[in-house]
Amino acid sequence: MRIDLHCHSTASDGTDTPAELVRNAAAAGLDVVALTDHDTTRGYAQAIAALPVGLTLVTGAELSCRLDGISMHMLAYLFDPEEPALFAERELVRDDRVPRAQGMVAKLQELGVPVTWEQVARIAGDGSVGRPHVATALVELGVVPTVNDAFTGDWLADGARAYVPKHETDPFEALRLIKGAGGVAVFAHPAASKRGRTVPESAIAELAAAGLDGIEVDHMDHEPATRARLRGLAAELGLLATGSSDYHGSRKTCVLGEYTTDPEVYGEITRRATGAFPVPGTGGAGVGA
User: Fold this and answer.
1) How far apart are CA 36 and CA 132, in angstroms?
2) Of 155, 200, 226, 255, which has the most beta carbons under 10 Å away?
3) What are the CA-CA distances from residue 247 to residues 42, 151, 257 (Å)?
4) CB atoms within 10 A of CB 29
5) Are 199 and 168 spatial neighbours (Cβ–Cβ below 8 Å)?
């Protein structure tokens, strides 16, 4: 089985619609794909309706968190999307994205970049607006050559000249909410130092003691030595080690199935989840458990 547990659609900052994502996942030879848009579940219905036979969909979300001033992301799998507490927190984070993006546009304008809110809003479309949309605007204007080049100290990285913070959930609270909604929690790209500061391994140990299920080990932002170190840490802490592409369509260079999750690990994730079931590719099947 080929299992990719971290993908984005136009419901957040990917360039494939949810329907295109599942069709492209099947074409890439995947057996299982997870839809993990940022702080939203709005892509579920379209993805399920278009799900090809032979492909299984894992419903999820990537939750924005912050620990001791360090931004981090928590992948939540197979939770009940209607559970009130987690729903309210997702809405709080998502609603803060618009004023935050508008603030980044204002800072860029002060730096002499002719970006407009209308341009960023057009790029985001119906998705949850975020830094990748602002970065895409910088690419369109010729300020930077690629989206990744916008995530530097000059532009949009944490603490950079045009950076604006947003509401982010304490990860220990995120764990409580995910578990309360019957979900499984995996710390996304925990050592992606290219993106900015990363939390120390001591914090990962504290999160593990608080109920964290796993860490994303195999990821494009982790060098081979880093992946080996994280795999050892996962074994030491009794955490599941996952792998995934973090696919964003044409917005990033990663491709579907670039990194995958071991079938046994996937099986354990589905065993632990009580909020929702994986959806087989029959088109229009329900999400709830």
Assistant:
1) 15
2) 155
3) 17, 17, 9
4) 10
5) no
DSSP characters over 228-274:
HHHHHHHHHHT-EEEE---B-GGGSS--TTSS---HHHHHHHHHH--
Give the pLDDT confidence of 270-280 residue by residue, as tens digits: 999 999 999 99
For residues 10 and 20, give the distance between their C-alpha atoms in angstroms, rounded to a whole number.
10
CA-CA distance, 261 to 266, in Å (whole number)? 7
Per-residue pLDDT at 207 exceeds 60? yes
61-94 CB burial, b ≥16 within 10 A, e <16 = bbbbbbbeebbbbbbbbbbbbebeebbebbeebb
Token representation of residue 252: 């990033």
Q: Is the pLDDT of residue 185 over 50?
A: yes
286 CB burial (10 A radius; 0-12, 13-18, 19+):
exposed
Amino acid at the residue 252: K
Q: How far apart are CA 171 and CA 190, in angstroms?
A: 13
Which is it for strands 56-67 and 32-35: parallel, antiparallel or unpaired? parallel
Q: Express each pLDDT in 108-132 by its tens digit.
A: 999 999 999 999 999 999 888 999 9
Are 55 and 32 in contact by the 8 Å Cβ rule? The answer is: yes
Alpha carbon distance 122, 287 (integer Å): 30
Q: How far apart are CA 170 and CA 168, in angstroms?
A: 7
pLDDT band per the 50, 70, 90 thresholds, residue 166: confident
**For residue 25, which amino acid is it?**
A
pLDDT at 284: 42
pLDDT at 140 exceeding the cut of 70: yes
